[in-house]
Amino acid sequence: MDTCKLLSLTKINVTTLNYRKIPTRIAFHPSHHLRMPNAIKSFIPSAASISASSIQHLLSVDPCRRDNVLQHASDSVSNCLTLTETNLDLTVPGIKSKTRGKVRDVYDAGEYLVLVTTDRQSAFDRILASIPFKGQVLNETSMWWFNNTRHITSNAVVSCPDENVTIAKKCTVFPVEFVVRGYLTGSTDTSLWTVYNKGLRSYCGNNLPDGMVKNQKLSANILTPTTKAVDHDVPVTPDEIVNLGLMTKDEYEETRNKALSLFSYGQKIALENGLLLVDTKYEFGKRSDGTILLVDEVHTPDSSRYWIANSYEDRFNSGLEPENVDKEFLRLWFRDNCNPYEDKVLPEAPKELVCELAWRYIFLFETITNSKFKIPSAKEPIHDRISRNVTEALASL
């Protein structure tokens, strides 16, 4: 796909599918890892809208990388991992059972768990679409953060034998998700802005002042935990967590401190790379010796919300949505085209939107990690590759 064709595609996204639904604003080359937010002012427009000339400018920085990723994503739409379901319990010796989550297939391998991150895209407590390369991006992004947050907390990771796979220590996972927020935003039923806009001023043990507006920065980061219910997450206060027996007071205090420290560190790294880490969720587990470990994923575009730092203030002051580098625009598209909580059958996400999200996930990985994402080879079927790599990894443990 050449630049002219890509510009044509961008125009279709803006005029036909609604610019707010499929923004094409994050178009600068991710290899330009500029360390301070102000350094990217010439790359990120902060006007009320993005004109065709602005899009042309963004693409002219280096259209080849974005062009290449979009083309690979388009070619791979029919080969997402979710369409071929992993069945390692049938192909890998030592695998005992499989549990299928929203995004991950988790396998019991005796002393260890094998977590396969698929391309399934979830939101509103259901699967929305399949995003090319998403599983690899999430797995490799998490691995980078796991390796770089060991000074804050220990984690359950043993190894990463495949682009889509993490082998982890077994532990008892607390039935609580630790959601940390730095801004008043969101579009789901449990998001901070949704409940605030309904008039709630006390949420998950936090008191919020009157007069705040959507996307406003909070005076301090707050923790809004939820219970891990089967069908949907339920907001809960710290006292309720302890009184319900979900955690002891000491366990909660320790994980609370870890979560807030992880988030502050994540915000620091994000800002150094021109991004705002807006909110995220963490999960923790406990080993038999009492050690509390960070599990699941860390600061991925699935578990976190990221905005472009340079344009945030101007857009906020103009009453515009921040430029995001996560799945929020996918949420907004489904919000605008259906009732994602009640409709039994959801509309199919447009291919252009799916490919755009694949690009944004890769952009985020490359921006945060300062490394180039490796597009997987299509020569070997994904499931065969995973089976081979997991078999070798388990045999070596």
UniProtKB/TrEMBL annotation:
Pathway connected to this protein: Purine metabolism; IMP biosynthesis via de novo pathway; 5-amino-1-(5-phospho-D-ribosyl)imidazole-4-carboxamide from 5-amino-1-(5-phospho-D-ribosyl)imidazole-4-carboxylate: step 1/2
UniProt key word Ligase: yes
GO biological process: 'de novo' IMP biosynthetic process
This protein's UniProt keywords: ATP-binding, Ligase, Nucleotide-binding, Purine biosynthesis
Family to which this protein belongs: Belongs to the SAICAR synthetase family.
Name used for this protein in its record: Phosphoribosylaminoimidazole-succinocarboxamide synthase, chloroplastic
Top-level taxon: Eukaryota
Domain (SAICAR synthetase/ADE2 N-terminal): residue spans on this chain: 99-345
PROSITE patterns named in the record: SAICAR_SYNTHETASE_1, SAICAR_SYNTHETASE_2
Catalytic activity, reaction form: 5-amino-1-(5-phospho-D-ribosyl)imidazole-4-carboxylate + L-aspartate + ATP = (2S)-2-[5-amino-1-(5-phospho-beta-D-ribosyl)imidazole-4-carboxamido]succinate + ADP + phosphate + 2 H(+)
HAMAP family listed in its UniProt record: SAICAR_synth (MF_00137)
GO function term, MF aspect, one: phosphoribosylaminoimidazolesuccinocarboxamide synthase activity
The EC number(s) this enzyme carries: 6.3.2.6
Enzyme class of the recorded protein, top EC level: ligase
Pfam families given in the database record: SAICAR_synt
InterPro entries: SAICAR_synt/ADE2_N (IPR028923), SAICAR_synthetase_CS (IPR018236)
